[in-house]
């Protein structure tokens, strides 16, 4: 905030100087358009410290962003495994960029575990159905129905 105020005030004061003395005005930016210590109203040490802090913050943001990308890629890999979809090289490369050992976020890991538990419970029932022959099931059901019908006719005089 102080930097912002200094820049605004020093900029306004330079404009008030008036006169056309071109040699008197200091160069506020380098040839490549980057601000200098003089243009920002800071001392050289303050400016270097400020630039160092900006660089550190940028590195931290980049690392956090890379980690988030890797976590998303891990989620996509789990989903592709679950639904037997083809793997993507892009996801693998994002995980490698983050260090290669990326774990699922805790909440997501719980959800995946619950889904796996449900699937295991359902697999036992559905697995037996898938392995059965439906013609055999149909024949057994018809035989059972015929037996129940005959038993009911024997016991009931109305039928």
Report on the structure:
The model is unreliable at 21-27 (pLDDT under 50). This protein has helices at residues 2-16, 37-40, 44-82, 89-97, 106-131, 134-155. The chain is rod-shaped. The relative contact order is 0.05. It is mainly alpha-helical and 159 residues long. Helix 3 packs antiparallel against helix 4 (89-97). It is 72% helix and 0% strand.
How many runs of DSSP E, i.e. beta strands?
0
What is the terminal-to-terminal distance?
A: 95 Å
General shape: rod-shaped
How many separate helices?
A: 6
Unreliable segments (pLDDT under 50, ≥5 consecutive)?
21-27
**SSE order:** HHHHHH
- The overall pLDDT average reads 77
Could you tell me the radius of gyration in angstroms?
37 Å
Largest sheet: none
Work out the helicity level. over 70%
The secondary-structure class comes to mainly alpha
How large is the share of residues in beta strands? Answer: under 5%
List the helices and strands and how they pair.
Layout: H1 2-16, H2 37-40, H3 44-82, H4 89-97, H5 106-131, H6 134-155
Can you give keywords for this protein?
159 residues; mainly alpha; 6 helices; rod-shaped
Question: How would you summarize what this structure contains?
Answer:
By secondary structure, the protein is an all-alpha fold.
């Amino acid at each position: 905030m102080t930097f912002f105020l200094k820049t605004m005030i020093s900029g306004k004061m330079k404009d008030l100087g008036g006169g056309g003395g071109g040699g008197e005005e200091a160069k506020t930016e380098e040839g490549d358009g980057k601000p200098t210590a003089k243009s920002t109203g800071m001392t050289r040490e303050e400016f270097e410290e400020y630039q160092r802090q900006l660089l550190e913050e940028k590195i931290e943001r980049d690392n956090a962003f890379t980690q988030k990308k890797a976590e998303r890629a891990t989620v996509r890999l789990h989903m592709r495994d679950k639904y037997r979809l083809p793997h993507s090289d892009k996801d693998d490369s994002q995980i490698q960029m983050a260090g290669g050992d990326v774990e699922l976020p805790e909440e997501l890991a719980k959800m995946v575990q619950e889904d796996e538990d449900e699937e295991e419970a359902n697999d036992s029932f559905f697995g037996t159905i898938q392995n059965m022959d439906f013609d055999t099931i149909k024949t057994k059901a018809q035989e059972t129905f015929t037996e129940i019908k005959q038993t009911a006719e024997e016991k009931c005089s109305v039928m």
